Amino acid sequence: MIHEELDEYLGIVSRDNAYRAVEVLKRSAYEVTETVMFCGENGALRGPFVRKRIAREAGVGGAYQEMFRAQQQGRRFVHVPRIEDCYELGDDLVVVMEHVGGKTLHELVYEKDPSWMLAAQVFPVLCDAVAELHEGFEPPIIHRDLKPSNVIVSPANLTLIDFGIARTYRDGAVADTNAFGTRAYAPPEQFGFGQTGPRSDVYALGMLLYYLLTEKVPSPALAGGAFDEEGVPEPLRPVLSKATAFDPAARYGSARELKGAFEAVAMPADAGSAPVVQPLLMPEVAPGAARPAAGAVPAPALVPAAGTVPVAGPAARGRLGKLLRLTEWLGVAWNAVVALFMVATVVAIVQKCTEPPSDLAAQPLWLLAWQYGGTGLMFLGAEWCLLDWRLLRRRVRALQGFRWGRSVVAGLIVAAVGFLLMFLGVAVAAVLFPKG
Description:
single chain
């Protein structure tokens, strides 16, 4: 018995050593993700693959084992990566899977710009992908981390990745064992308000639809609201509101139901004369070859019916996109000018404090710093309001949810505080050092 266990362990070690690490893609407290190549006995390399080492003590990663067992039994999935190997080694669960090529949804929206058109091309397939995950397993697997960086779009398909915190639904469970996820896309029940289920991924799909339409990282404050803002077509607002309801029971019952609600608005049955949008996911097919099975390629999406939402043509959207990019770079030049004024303000304040005018020379440094510091804050707050944040919001992922209005409010608050400090400083100086 001991010899059999030892042989099994050595076999696993040998399998693990056959993979050569190329690049570390992500590292966290409980998981390491890296690109690897398989090195055969004859030295031939095969790959690349993605290997994950997940600490078993974290209590996550079980979805990979479920998918591996299903694929070993002959199951094939359209929107789930192929698991090459899955084994336990020491304190880690090791998963080796295919390397999915393509662009993340984040990259795709940045490149093509958010729009109703893009949502009509991508969102139904995204719903199909989540439905495959829910319906392909019993009990269903809940992804729990649906976000733009975990959706890969290639010319031939759309694939969900990163199932590290995915879990199976358990009847009767009150709450999840672990509370993980990305706050912008995860539903309330994922953080201690109940057990996650298929409707939890429906919530995330609703927020992803909002992202496809606006390119804004959604705020939890949007959940179940009216979504009455620029970029969100009015016919889709009720769909978003229901998909992201706080109470899971008030949401759509499944990803397929959400897809049907979206298509009823975006692709109405009476839009027979509407032009056809080119499918976004269109594989290269050799002449005479059969196309992939149904489900691998989305059906052509129709433009919304007349009277709902006007959609600009590709050429117009392209020209508009270039113009917006140009104005963003002009905004960078503008920011440089504003930054120079901010530096000049700081220099002037320091100079006034160290070399005060003759009528203020008798005042101590602390009082000068009080008065001129308040004046400086007032000017710096006003100058901050003039900054252009558009390019930074596009390039820096952490700033995607940043709103220009909030920046202005923050600048005005700083300016108001500076004015108050300056006023009080002058009042104190008038009492302590009266003129004449």
